[in-house]
Amino acid sequence: MRKPKVLSLLLAAVLLLGCTGCTPVLNSAATLSQTQSQPEESVSEEAQPQSDVLLYQDDLRGVWISYIELESMMQDHNQQDFSYYTRVVLNNAKAQGINTVFVQVRSHGDAIYPSAYYPWSKYVTGTAGQAADYDPLEIFIQQAHELGLSFHAWVNPYRLMSQNDFATVDASYLTKQWLGNTQYMRYNDTDGYYYLDPNNEEALDLICNGIAELVQNYNVDGIHFDDYFYSIPPEQYGYDAATAHAATDRLVQRVYQTVKSINPAVQFGVSPGGNYYDAPASDTTQYTNIVTWCTQPGYLDYIAPQIYWEFDHEQAPFLDVFNKWVSLTSGTNVKLYVGLATYKFATTETLLIQENLCVNHPNCGGFIHFRYENLCGKIR
């Protein structure tokens, strides 16, 4: 009985802040950053880094497009059908007011594009490691930019394939050479995937080489990590929490440096779990160092906490958690974007209020919906 009244009052307050309607509205113009990049060495002799970056930094209205959506888009395993469904997905997203897409280009130590460091994703051709005769990433970026959408390449840095998928991967790839070697990776019995050891320097080099390849060879506007850092506890790798924290610091710092060394205009951000008590909960569960990353230079351009709760949630009421993240990032150079639980609230007043709080608050740069199919419906 109280909940509808509270939501109505919150909505009224947001409307007074200047909301003009229920559907988010795109910026009239994107913030176009132009920076000439001068990398010390090229990843590809043919490709040259792109200097024009399309960003909506102060009014970001984004959506995550995961490997689950990509699997549906790619199930026919040919360029014509993928191009068609890419256009459908992007047009649908834009119709919902989206101006930025976060596309999972590496979900399991693989790639949806030709890579010197990672085998082809099984979602592209149906078999892990089997090359496609087209480049899905190039198509996705081109079509996104044609529609005025910013494109962020979403990478899971540590998660690898299952044992079965590794069977079809060529031995020229480092992850195949490292398979079963606990110096480099561990197997997770819970989900059936291998994970790189975050404290292994060769693994870190591989991750950074893969990021450099993306920024060097493709006109991406951003590089994006989600909340998976330690899916396997550090003690199973043989070290303590302090070592794990240091490893995530090195990862984030080196990826940031890698991105900026090639194109300083390209953004790098992380989307941790949104729980926030006296400190961000992911510092305990995933061995992040969120306060350092948000307040010290050289780590992040933005943070996108996944605040996936109701306004009246007992342990983590949305507004309380939101305000903690606002307080952390206010006065810093790190933008705040809020991950929203569209999978829970897609057709509710709750989601509308949360969207408008994000876009109207002076110290929040926007929001990201999890995920595309929850916002726009099934692709097929």
Automatic annotation (TrEMBL):
What is the superkingdom listed in this entry's lineage? Answer: Bacteria
Q: Does the keyword Cytoplasm apply?
A: no
One Pfam family, short name please? GHL10
Q: Where is the signal peptide?
A: 1-24
Ranges for domain Glycosyl hydrolase-like come to 60-244, 247-346
Asked if the Swiss-Prot or TrEMBL record annotates the protein with the keyword Nucleotidyltransferase, the reply is no
Annotated keywords: Signal
Full protein name:
Family 10 glycosylhydrolase
